[in-house]
Automatic annotation (TrEMBL):
GO terms for cellular component: endoplasmic reticulum membrane. It comes from [Myrmecia] bisecta. The keyword Protein biosynthesis does not apply. The chain crosses the membrane at residues 69-88. This is 3-ketodihydrosphingosine reductase. The keyword Magnesium does not apply.
């Protein structure tokens, strides 16, 4: 496994103090038009890719009682739309993983963080736009989403990481995104609905 090889290569030189799980991809499409292997591929990369990396380093972090784990999810970890039946569930799964790991690792001095970045100008985003069904494009337009650079997204995330925030800020949601680390850690339907309204008020009207 590539994760284990990379970990073995670093062990002789340094310890891993911060793990940032940001590998992922989106393959939008209508549910009835997509094969099951697209769902499996997306879940393997977006969810299990992060899970494998965390599993590889967590034991050592716990032994040292020190470390930070950043799980990069998406705004779609809280609300779903047409065209994202492959992508959104994988990001909801990451949010569930982060909530559970946060509770489990906190007594050992390991801090878990989750990020929900907006549309970011990357090659992956360019490919996503080629696959989006018209309904998904309209939803993005109704939400008034801007396109951000990777540097803007990373800067917002790092500012939250330095402050010890559980929910790391996003450049488009800093004023709105919950700053209380206890917020959004449960599954209350009213909270889910409120978050969806805050993210995409026009699209949900």
């Amino acid at each position: 496994m590539q994760v284990n090889k990379a970990l073995a290569a670093t062990k002789s030189r340094a310890t891993i103090d911060v793990l940032i799980c940001c590998a992922g991809a989106s393959y939008p499409g209508r549910f009835l038009e997509q094969d099951l292997d697209v769902h499996e591929t997306t879940m393997q990369l977006n969810y299990f890719g992060s899970l494998y990396a965390i599993k590889a380093v967590a034991a050592e972090m716990v032994a040292r009682r020190q470390g930070r784990i950043v799980i990069v999810s998406s705004a779609l970890m809280a609300v779903g739309f047409v065209g994202f039946t492959t992508y959104a569930p994988s990001k909801w799964a990451l949010r569930g993983l982060a909530d559970c790991l946060r509770n489990e690792f906190l007594p050992f001095g390991i801090h878990v963080h989750i990020a929900a970045p907006p549309d970011t100008n990357t090659p992956g985003y360019e490919n996503e736009m080629k696959l989006k069904p018209p309904e998904a494009v309209l939803a993005s337009q109704a939400a008034g989403e801007d396109l951000y650079t990777p540097e803007q997204v990373a800067s917002a995330m790092m500012s939250g990481l330095e402050k010890g925030k559980y929910h790391l800020p996003s450049p488009n949601l800093v004023p709105q995104f919950p700053q209380d680390p206890n917020e959004l850690s449960g599954t209350d339907a009213r909270v889910q609905a409120a978050v969806g309204w805050r993210f995409f008020p026009s699209a949900l009207a």
